[in-house]
Amino acid sequence: MSGNEGTAAVQDIQDLEITRLEAWLADNIPGFVGPLTYTKFAIGQSNPTYRIAARSGCYVLRRKPFGKLLPSAHAIEREYTLLAALHPTGYPVAKPFALCEDESVVGSVFYVMEMVDGATFWDGALPGCDIEQRTAIYFEIVDRLAELHDIDYERSGLAGFGKAGNYLERQVQLWTRQYRLSQTEDLPDVEKLIDWLPRTMPRQQRTTIVHGDYRIDNLMFSHDGRRIEAVLDWELSTIGDPLADLSYFLINWVTPVDGHAGLAGISGPGTGIPTLEQMVARYGQMVGAQRDMADLNWYFAFCRFRQLGITQGIRRRFLDGNASGATADVTGSRVPLIAESAWAFAQKTVVQS
C-alpha cells in the first residue's frame, strides 16, 4: 500500500510554555524524562493536538483551544474519561496517561496519551490499495464500530457518561443551540431543518457507546493495513443511538468523491470498496441483529445538521481569531452547502407515522 496513507503533517508552532509543561509531565506521567520538544499536528479544527518528543519517548497532547468557548464544546475531559474506560477492555484506543485541569500549565485544559505507531488513510478511495485490501480495510472499519456498540458501557464504568434515552432529541437540541450561539448569518435551509428534525425523528432502538465522529481518517491502522491500532478523536463520544453513529460513517457512500472520505459512485466489485448494502449487512451480522435500514435519509439529514453546527463553530472561531486549523476560513465557508445537503436528505425521508 502506498500513496494515500501516512502520519499527520505537523507544524512548527510554538504556543505552549515548555518549562511549566515539562515540570507537570515529570510529576504526573510515570517514567517521563525530559527535555522535550513539540510540534503541532496540522490536522484538526477543534482541539489542538501536539506531538511531544522527550528522552523517554513520544506522546500526544490534546488541549482545549485558547479563548472564549461555546458551552459543552471541546470536551477534553470527556475524551480522557472515555479513553480511560475503554483502554482496559482491549478496544483499540491510545493509552491515556494524565489529565490536567490546571489552565496555568499551558493556558487551557489538556490531556496526554501514548503516541500510537501506525498509518492513517486520508483518502477513502484508497488509491494505493488493491481490490482485496480495500474490502478488508472497510470490513475492519465497520467491524470495529460494531465491536464498540457491543461494549457494556455500564460494566466499563461509563454509566454516567451520558443519558440512556432520547439521544436524537437531545442531539438536535444541542446542535440547534450550538448553531444559534455561533450563528453569523440567516440561512433558510437551517431554519427548515430546525423545525423539521424534532417533528420527524425515529424511535431509538438500542443504547450504546457512540463515537460521534467515526470515519476513516480518525483511525490509525497497522502499517500493513490489516487492523485498526487506535480509534482517535473521541470529543463527540457519549451514550446514545448506535444507528446515528453507523449512519455518520455510512453517509460517505452518498458523499461525492473529494479526496477525503466521500465514496459516492465508486463502491462495488470493480473497486473492492463494499457497497452501502454490504456494509449495512456486515454491521447487522456483527451485532447479531439485522436492522431496518430501508430509509437512512433522516439520519443522513441529522448527520449533516450536526456537521453544519460544528462547521459554524469553526467559522465563528475563525472570525473571532482563535481557530485551530490552518484551513478554518475555507472550512467555515462551507456552512451553506452543508445546510443545502442536509435539507436535500430531509426531503427524501419517508417519515414513519
Quick summary:
The chain is an alpha+beta fold. The protein has two domains: 18-115, 2-Layer Sandwich (Phosphorylase Kinase, domain 1); 120-348, Aminoglycoside phosphotransferase (APH), C-terminal lobe (Aminoglycoside 3'-phosphotransferase, Chain: A, domain 2, Alpha-Beta Complex), CATH 3.90.1200.10. It has helices at 18-28, 76-86, 131-149, 167-182, 188-200, 242-250, 276-287, 297-320, 328-332, 335-348; strands at 5-6, 10-11, 36-41, 49-54, 57-63, 96-100, 110-114, 120-121, 208-210, 219-221, 228-231, 238-240.
Protein model, in words:
This is Aminoglycoside phosphotransferase (APT) family kinase protein. Residues 38-270 form the Aminoglycoside phosphotransferase domain. GO terms for molecular function: kinase activity. InterPro entries: ACAD10-like (IPR052898), ACAD10_11_N (IPR041726), Aminoglycoside_PTrfase (IPR002575), Kinase-like_dom_sf (IPR011009). By secondary structure, the protein is α+β, with helices and mostly antiparallel strands. The protein has two domains: 18-115, 2-Layer Sandwich (Phosphorylase Kinase, domain 1), CATH 3.30.200.20; 120-348, Alpha-Beta Complex (Aminoglycoside 3'-phosphotransferase, Chain: A, domain 2), CATH 3.90.1200. Helix content is 38%, strand content 14%. It has helices spanning 18-28, 76-86, 131-149, 167-182, 188-200, 242-250, 276-287, 297-320, 328-332, 335-348; strands at 5-6, 10-11, 36-41, 49-54, 57-63, 96-100, 110-114, 120-121, 208-210, 219-221, 228-231, 238-240. The strands form four sheets. Strands 2-3-4-5-7-6 form a six-stranded antiparallel β-sheet, with helices on both faces. Strand 4 (49-54) and strand 5 form a beta hairpin. Helix 3 (131-149) packs across helix 7, helix 5 (188-200) packs parallel to helix 10 (335-348) and helix 8 packs antiparallel against helix 10. The longest helix is centred in the C-terminal third of the chain and has 24 residues, at 297-320. The termini are far apart. The mean pLDDT is 89.
